[in-house]
Amino acid sequence: MSSAGNQRSSADMQIVAAPERAVAALPPRPPAVSSTALVEYKPPAPNLEEEDIEIKLRRILECVPVRVNNTSGSSAGSGSGDFHQYRQMRRKEQDRVARMDADYQRRKQLAEFNMRREERLKATEERTAKKRSKRQKKKQRKKEKKSKLSGGEEECRKEESSDDDKDSVDDEVVN
C-alpha cells in the first residue's frame, strides 16, 4: 500500500452531527449567605402545567428576584453619588420612623379616649340605676300607702282581677 492511499483528502470526509448525550448539568449554586449579589438565585420551576393555580401563584411569587437597593460598596474614593444615596436612605428611614410615631400616638389617643368613654358610660349607668331604684322604692311606698287606706276596696279589686286573669288564660288556651 502506498502512503498516498492512507491519506484522505478533506473532500472524502463528511461532517456528521454527533448524537447529543444527556449531560447531567447541575444548576448553578445559590449565593452564599454573606453574598453581595443583587439578585437571589431561585431554581427553575418544574412542569407548571401539572400544578394547580395556587401552587403556580406561590411559585411565581417565590421566584421573583429580590433587588437590593442599598448596595454601597467599600470603595476608597466614595463620590458625591454615594452621599446622595445615603441622604435619600436616611430621609426615607426618618419618614418611616415619623409615620410609626404618628401611628403610635394616634392609637394611644384612641385607646385613652375609649377608656375614658367607657368610664363615663359606666358612671352614668350607675347613677341611672341608683335613681331608678329610688323611683321604684317611692312608687312601691306610694302603692303600699294607698293599699293601707283602701284595704276593703282592694280585696274586691283582687277578686275581680283574678276572675279577669282566669278569663284571659282561658282565652289564650282557646287561641
Helix % is 55-70%
Class per helix and strand makeup: mainly alpha
Instruction: Pick out the low-confidence regions.
Output: none
- What's the helix-strand series? HHHH
Supply the number of helical segments: 4
Return Rg in Å.
Answer: 47 Å
Number of strands: 0
Based on CA inertia axes, which overall geometry fits? elongated
Describe this structure in words.
- This protein is mainly alpha-helical and 175 residues long.
- The chain has a domain at 80-162.
- Helices cover 62% and strands 0% of the residues.
- The protein has helices spanning 3-6, 53-62, 80-149, 151-174.
- The longest helix has 70 residues, at 80-149.
- The model has no long low-confidence stretch (mean pLDDT 74).
